[in-house]
Amino acid sequence: MTSPDRPRIAVLFTGHFYRQGRRGSMHWLADQLRDHGWSVRFVTFGYSWLSLLTRDVRLAGVERPPHGLSSVGPGLDTYFAIKPFHPIDLRKPLLNRLARPVFDRFGALWSGDVRHLTADADLVVLESGLPVLLAPLVRRHSRARMVYRVNDDVRIMRMPPAVPRAEIDHAPLFDRISVASPILAERFAAIGRIGMDPMGLDAAKFRQPHPSPFDSGWEKEAVCAGTSHFDAPTVLTMAALRPRWRFHILGRLREPIEGPNIVCHGEQPFDRVVPYVQHADIGLAPYRDLPGVEYQTHHSNRLLQYAALGLPTVGPRRMAHLDAPYLVGYDPTDTASIDAALTRAAGLDRTLLTANVPGWDALYRGIVSVCE
């Protein structure tokens, strides 16, 4: 597929915009591909007129690219399209069943786009979520190697029922199912082709000294560097238990939480997040305590940041295990348990907690190995 006079082409399908404050693994993968000489098409997928009507929070404060293919810089194009509809979770089983015949036609709306974007590709990466619905179209229109990057457990996210079904139904179409968590790998054990590709971290950013963003006067500064699966009631409980600590929330919230010692900073660029984590006393991982959330210990970028800095962290007990010695678990239904976790975390010796976290080049090597 690749000729000597052109770089290899990778197409990444994701729900993210390339130009947004929060950087996920697909952004870092895109940058790694470019650094290694690939030409990248970063496709933002899963938006429709429904997104505009429902005021989708993912569109808030984002610099949306123009429709169609546009150049961002050397070796990087972005693609964006708003379709008439896309599958959503209607929250009622009956409504989801009634809507299924309509939502099942969503892929047809992207047939021409997929053919145009992937016909000359060498590698196509579909991120977990709505992009997995495109797997049959990509396989039909492209000879590229296909990778399914499982960044989240779609069963515990608010996803339309079509997504968990498609994840298993379409898994055999992929050349590699890329996961960072052995917990997520179990879901695909019967299918095989699993690649254990770790999440990474731009460790150089954390090795560089940054001035502290904190003023004086607080006993401890606790930082939550991300808000996916955010458990607001538990954070409010923590803030009430520790009135002399200040709690910083960096990330997008549907509704900001309030308290005299709570600061909601909103979604921030990665470079602005680094000093908060670097100078924090306590890391916060207030994930909603749902069965299956354990995978976040290996997939959460915020937890990787805490691990790299040896930052004592509190999170749901089901996430605290031997792979995360820096993480102190609590029962979110038990105030005494939360109080005890905060006390224990504050007393941990940070010099014993720092972990070696891989860079994003490890994820790149695993993904592109299907093309070798």
Structure in words:
The structure is a single chain. The chain is α/β, with parallel strands linked by helices. It folds into two domains: 9-200 and 360-371, Rossmann fold; 204-352, 3-Layer(aba) Sandwich (Rossmann fold). The chain contains 15 helices and 14 strands. It has helices at 25-35, 49-53, 93-103, 106-109, 111-118, 135-141, 162-170, 182-185, 203-207, 232-241, 270-279, 296-299, 301-309, 335-346, 360-368, and strands at residues 9-14, 39-44, 68-73, 76-80, 123-127, 145-149, 176-179, 194-196, 220-225, 245-250, 262-266, 282-284, 313-316, 327-330. It has an eight-stranded mixed beta sheet with strand order 3-4-2-1-5-6-7-8, sandwiched between helices. A six-stranded parallel beta sheet has the order 11-10-9-12-13-14, sandwiched between helices. Helix 7 (162-170) links the parallel strand 6 and strand 7. Helix 1 (25-35) crosses helix 15 and helix 10 (232-241) crosses helix 14 (335-346). The longest helix is centred in the C-terminal third of the chain and has 12 residues, at 335-346. The protein is globular and about 60 Å long. The chain starts with 8 loop residues before the first strand and ends with a helix. The model has no long low-confidence stretch (mean pLDDT 89).
